[in-house]
Design a protein that fits this description.
Layout lengths: L1 H20 L3 H29 L1 H20 L4 H29 L2 H33 L3 H4 L1 H14 L15 H19 L1 H4 L4 H23 L7 H4 L2 H31 L4 H29 L1 H20 L7 H28 L6 H24 L4 E2 L10 E2 L3 H16 L2 H4 L6
C-alpha cells in the first residue's frame, strides 16, 4: 500500500513541487522516471537476495530505507536532491515488494493463498484510488513536502509489524555468491527498456532515440541470456523459466497492466481535452474502476477456487479487452452511465486477472525461489504500464495547443485519434488471452 499510495499522491504534488523548487518540466518528470527506473532495474535482484538472506529481513530494510529516503525528500533544498532520493526510494521499494509476495507464500497454506492475494490487491486498489484525494488535501494545506512526510510513520508502523510477526523458516536452497555481472546486465536491460518506452510519447516509435534504446535493451538482454547459460548460479534460475504457470502469469500481467494503463492514459486525455471535463469530474467518471477493483478482488479469488485459474483468467481478460473496445467507441455525446459501466467492467476484469495470475505466480513458485518469482511479477507490473502508455501515445499525434506552451506540445485528442489508440491498446490486452489459456485448470 505504501508504494501504491506514494506513486499516486506524487502526481497531485508535482505542480507545487515545480513552483517551489523552480524546476522545469523535464526535471519534474524525472522525479517519477528516476524512481521507476530504479524499481524496474532491481526488483528481480531484490527477490534473489530475499531468497538468500530472508524475505523478512529484506522487507525490513526496504521499508526503513523507503521511509528514510522520504524523510530526506522533505528536507531537499533542490530538485536534484529530490530526483536522487526518489531513485533511492526506488531501490528500497524494489527490496520490499517481492518480499511481501514471498511472505504470503510462507504464511498462508495453498487453499487460503487466493484470499490473501485478493486482500493485497484490494489494499493496493484502495491506496491507488485514495492517493489523488489525499494528495490534494495535503498539498492544499501543507505543500508538496507533506506527501512524502506521511510515508515516515507508515514505514515505521510496517517495520514494527514486520518485527512482531513470526513467519515460518523458508526451505534452504543451495546458493553461491551473487553474480554481480549478471545482476548488472539484468539491471541495465530493464532500465534501458523502461527509459526507452517512457520516451516514446516524445520521440515516437521510429525516432532515433527509441530505436537505439530498444536495440540496446535487446543487446543487454541477449548478453544476459548468454551469460546466464554459463553461470552455475543464475540470477533467474532455470527451474523458474521452465515453469509454464509462472512464465504464463508473467506474460499475462505484463500485457494486462499495459492494456489497463494505456486505456486510462488515452481515456483521461479524452475526458479532459475531448469533453472539456475538469480533473475532479474526470476522477469521478473513472471512480467505478477503482470501486470494482476493490470489490472484484475477493470475488475473483472465489471464482478461481470454484472454476480454476484458467477459466477465471480468460473471463477477466476478455472483460478487459471488451471494456477497452467499448471505450474506443465513446463520443462527445456519450452519457456518463455508459463510461461508468465501461470503467467498472475494466476494473473488475483487471482485478480478476491480477488476483488469478498473482495467486498462480505465488502458489506455483518453485520451492526456495519465491523471491525471484515475486521480483519477476513486480517487474512485469512496472514494465507493463510503460509499454501500454507507449503503445497508446505512439498513435496519438502531438500538436501544440493553447493549453501548453509552444515548447511543451500537448496530445491532440480527437475521437478518431482516441479510437485508433484504444484499439491498439485493446490488441495488446488481447494478447493476454494466450497465456491465460495455458494457466492451470485447477
Amino acid at each position: 500500500m505504501i508504494v501504491a499510495l506514494d506513486g499516486t499522491v506524487l502526481l497531485v504534488a508535482q505542480p507545487d513541487l515545480q513552483r517551489d523548487l523552480g524546476a522545469d518540466v523535464t526535471q519534474v518528470q524525472w522525479t517519477s522516471t528516476g524512481y521507476l527506473l530504479a524499481v524496474a532495474a532491481f526488483l528481480v535482484i531484490a527477490g534473489r537476495l530475499g531468497d538468500r538472506y530472508g524475505h523478512k529481513r529484506l522487507l525490513l530494510i526496504g521499508v526503513l530505507g523507503f521511509g528514510a529516503a522520504s524523510a530526506g525528500i522533505t528536507l531537499a533544498p533542490g530538485v536534484g536532491w529530490v530526483i536522487g532520493l526518489r531513485a533511492a526510494q526506488g531501490v528500497f521499494g524494489a527490496l520490499l515488494q517481492p518480499a511481501t509476495l514471498a511472505l504470503l507464500r510462507l504464511v498462508y497454506p495453498a487453499d487460503r493463498l487466493g484470499t490473501a492475494v485478493a486482500a493485497r490487491t484490494s489494499a493496493i486498489g484502495v491506496a491507488a484510488g485514495a492517493g489523488p484525494v489525499l494528495g490534494g488535501v495535503l498539498v492544499a494545506h501543507w505543500g508538496w513536502r507533506a506527501v512524502f512526510l506521511i510515508n515516515i510513520p507508515a514505514a515505521l508502523a510496517i517495520a514494527a509489524l514486520t518485527l512482531a510477526v513470526r513467519t515460518p523458516v523458508p526451505p534452504r536452497t543451495a546458493f553461491r555468491r551473487f553474480d554481480l555481472a549478471a545482476g548488472a546486465l539484468l539491471a541495465a536491460a530493464l532500465a534501458v527498456l523502461v527509459h526507452t518506452l517512457a520516451g516514446v510519447p516524445d520521440h515516437g516509435w521510429t525516432g532515433v532515440r527509441t530505436v537505439l534504446g530498444l536495440v540496446s535493451a535487446v543487446a543487454f538482454a541477449a548478453g544476459l541470456v548468454a551469460y546466464e547459460r554459463r553461470s552455475a548460479q543464475p540470477v533467474v534460475p532455470a527451474v523458474v523459466t521452465r515453469s509454464v504457470p509462472v512464465m504464463a502469469s508473467m506474460a499475462l500481467l505484463l500485457v494486462t497492466s499495459g492494456g489497463m494503463f494505456g486505456a486510462l492514459f488515452v481515456a483521461t486525455f479524452f475526458l479532459q481535452q475531448g469533453l472539456g471535463l475538469d480533473p475532479l469530474t474526470t476522477g469521478l467518471r473513472v471512480l467505478p474502476l477503482t470501486v470494482l477493483m476493490v470489490l472484484g478482488a475477493p470475488a475473483a479469488a472465489a471464482g478461481a477456487r470454484r472454476f480454476g485459474p484458467r477459466r477465471t483468467a480468460v473471463a477477466g481478460q476478455a472483460g478487459v479487452v471488451l471494456a477497452i473496445i467499448g471505450l474506443s467507441r465513446l463520443s462527445p455525446d456519450s452519457a456518463w452511465p455508459e463510461t461508468g459501466v465501461l470503467f467498472a467492467v475494466l476494473g473488475a476484469g483487471f482485478a480478476t486477472v491480477m488476483v488469478t495470475a498473482t495467486g498462480t505466480v505465488v502458489g506455483d513458485a518453485p520451492p526456495g525461489h519465491a523471491g525471484v518469482v515475486g521480483g519477476l511479477k513486480q517487474t512485469a507490473m512496472n514494465v507493463g504500464p510503460t509499454l501500454g502508455i507507449a503503445v497508446a501515445a505512439g498513435l496519438m499525434p502531438l500538436t501544440s495547443s493553447a493549453v501548453a506552451a509552444p515548447a511543451e506540445p500537448a496530445l491532440a485528442m480527437s475521437g478518431p485519434a482516441m479510437g485508433q489508440a484504444l484499439m491498439a491498446v485493446a490488441a495488446l490486452a488481447a494478447l493476454g488471452l494466450v497465456p491465460a489459456s495455458v494457466l492451470p485448470r485447477r
